[in-house]
Write a structure and sequence with these properties.
Layout lengths: L15 H4 L3 H18 L4 H4 L1 H8 L4 H16 L8 H33 L6 H12 L18 H23 L1 H22 L8 H7 L5 H17 L17 H20 L11 H24 L3 H6 L2 H8 L1 H7 L5 H11 L1 H31 L11
Helix pairs in contact: 2-5, 2-15, 2-16, 4-12, 5-8, 5-11, 5-13, 6-7, 6-8, 6-16, 6-18, 8-9, 9-11, 11-13, 12-13, 16-18, 17-18
């Protein structure tokens, strides 16, 4: 199918080759998950020095890679003229649910039960029920007080789920008004929610301002919008999913890839140098916050576009079978590498060394993905549509 174009608006169609995905971008998910892992398991400052320690501490920007990728892939696959019709919307909802929720549910509930058995002296049923409700509904990610409860890294899933839920509305608005006005409207919505949260001042929902800025979709909106805008550009250029080395640009210097890598590395270094103290992050300064919120998303887009269009050893590496497998299992890796599961896995890291623990968690993640996550996803997609659509209309 050929993409249609409307002046001043995003492409209305979707090129079927591009919809099948880009292998190198799946491999980038493994990089993002690895960055977050090393953000949580910092090398000792006494052994490696404070600069290396600080650089690893700022690898939380792997979350930005995830968010930009989400915006890119969702828009790439669900921006056709038919995307807002009933059947495609139901298909979209089931795909998002099947991709995110089953594994999250199993790990959150499993870790709650394991925690109760592990530390019965401090177990309170009311607290566990509250924490389970906040986690399983994703509500905890709207509260500064509760964002890290249970499987702590799950706060990012609230950001993702907010984007997934709002995407059909965002797409409709973007098709009518363009990206920038809708982005500004999203920021304005965040300010309104912050105002309401500050007025109510209960449970730290949508307050303080730094929480809204760094931990909610309304503060991290540019991550997703940058990814969507890149996908729109890919639509307009009719770029398929073929390997970069087969393109007409096979002899060109990988300028976008290089700019993306150097820019992201520069942001990490700058954030490390901006840290006000050893216990703080570079994003706690105005310059650091601007780097994370405004500068980093375009740099990630440059890297992603380079991996799509430019032949390089980096594109080949991320598109390799090993990295694609690790990227596919990166969601499991992300869910178990720290937080609640840290009660079990964290001790391994200290006892056997962080690198060996990293390899073990990778292996466990691949097993969980292949034996649990992927079979559950396929089962839900195979049966779920028929609950809402006649069999003849299942997309």
């Amino acid at each position: 199918m050929t993409a249609e174009h409307t002046p001043g608006n995003p492409a209305h169609g979707i090129a079927s080759p591009a919809a099948k995905g880009f292998p190198a971008l799946t491999g980038v998910r493994a990089l993002a998950a690895t960055m977050v892992f090393w953000h949580h398991y910092l090398p000792s400052a006494r052994t490696w020095g404070w600069l290396i320690h600080s650089i690893f501490k700022e690898l939380h920007i792997g979350v930005t890679l995830f968010f930009v990728l989400s915006g890119f892939l969702i828009y790439l696959r669900h921006s056709s003229a038919e995307s807002l019709h009933k059947a495609p919307l139901i298909r979209y909802a089931f795909h998002r649910f099947a991709r995110v929720y089953p594994m999250y549910f199993l790990i959150v509930v499993g870790m709650a039960i394991w925690t109760a058995l592990y530390d019965p002296a401090h177990f309170r049923f009311a607290d566990m029920a509250r924490d389970l409700l906040l986690q399983l509904t994703f509500i905890r990610g709207f509260s500064d007080q509760y964002k890290f409860i249970g499987v702590g890294q799950g706060w990012t899933l609230t950001v993702e789920a907010t984007f997934y839920a709002l995407y059909p509305v965002l797409l409709k608005l973007i098709r009518r008004f363009g990206f920038l006005p809708v982005l500004l409207l999203t920021y304005a919505t965040g300010l309104v929610l912050y105002g309401l949260g500050s007025a109510v001042n209960r449970g730290s929902f949508f307050t303080p301002f730094t929480f809204v800025l760094f931990y909610t979709f309304f503060g991290r909106a540019l991550d997703f919008f940058a990814g969507m805008k890149l996908a729109d550009y890919v639509h307009r250029k009719g770029i398929g999913h073929q390997a970069p080395e087969t393109s007409m640009e096979s002899r060109r210097f990988p300028s976008f890839t290089t700019a993306g890598v150097l820019g992201i590395a520069g942001c990490i270094y700058a954030l490390a140098r901006l840290e006000p103290s050893n216990q703080q992050y570079g994003t706690e300064t105005l310059t650091g916050a601007l780097l994370l919120i405004l500068a980093l998303p375009p740099l990630v887009c440059a890297l992603l576009y380079g991996l799509i269009r430019e032949p390089s050893w980096l594109a080949q590496f991320f598109g390799s079978r090993l990295l694609v497998t690790l990227g596919a299992s990166s969601y499991c890796f992300y869910l178990i590498h720290v937080g609640g599961p840290n009660l079990m896995i964290g001790h391994w890291a200290y006892d056997i060394g962080f690198f060996i623990a990293y390899l073990l968690i990778l292996c466990i993640s691949v097993l969980l993905w292949s034996l649990v996550e992927e079979p559950l996803r396929r089962l839900i997609l195979a049966r779920g549509f028929h609950l809402f659509l006649p069999r003849s209309k299942v997309p």
